[in-house]
User: Fold this.
Amino acid sequence: MTVKFVASSKLPTPWGVFEMVGFDDETTGKEHVALVFGEPGGDQPALARVHSECLTGDALFSLRCDCGFQLQEALKRIAEEGSGVLLYLRQEGRGIGLLNKIRAYHLQDGGADTVEANEALGFEADMRDYSMCQPMLDHLGIKRVRLMTNNPRKVKALEKFGVSVAERVPLQVGKNRHNENYLATKMGKLGHMMTEHHFREESE
Assistant:
């Protein structure tokens, strides 16, 4: 895989001014960005989030998932920390693409869960690829990360591709009545580590 740095610029956000660093994945033709706050390189592991694009949650305020909430909370925590990085990867719908995601939503409207819907369309439950993360982090001079995620599979996938994960940091936000089944499927079928205590509290 060839991932090349393209350009960088300032990105003012409600939480502070990030550096937006653009990368071109020449193998897939996809464009990814890193949002960098402060100077996260050096010997200490950087607070980090690896976030896959979710147009519906990130930009259209969908309550069907927790993605938009996680994106905003991660940026907020990085800014409060004083340094860190968020890798924003262009792989919508756990890698199946936007239009197939809408097809999956249609099946979910009929009663399927997220895993069942993906499989009914001929896809695996999670099609995401993390091979671009290590070269992106290398370019930024980040050797180790404290990864904000509830997904232990993501930790293993990143480590498989050479990313050193020093710690998993829980990121439990965005629970609401519209995504209860979605989160339950994450816990039950995909092994996401969301505590039952948190799950009950948010549903009350």
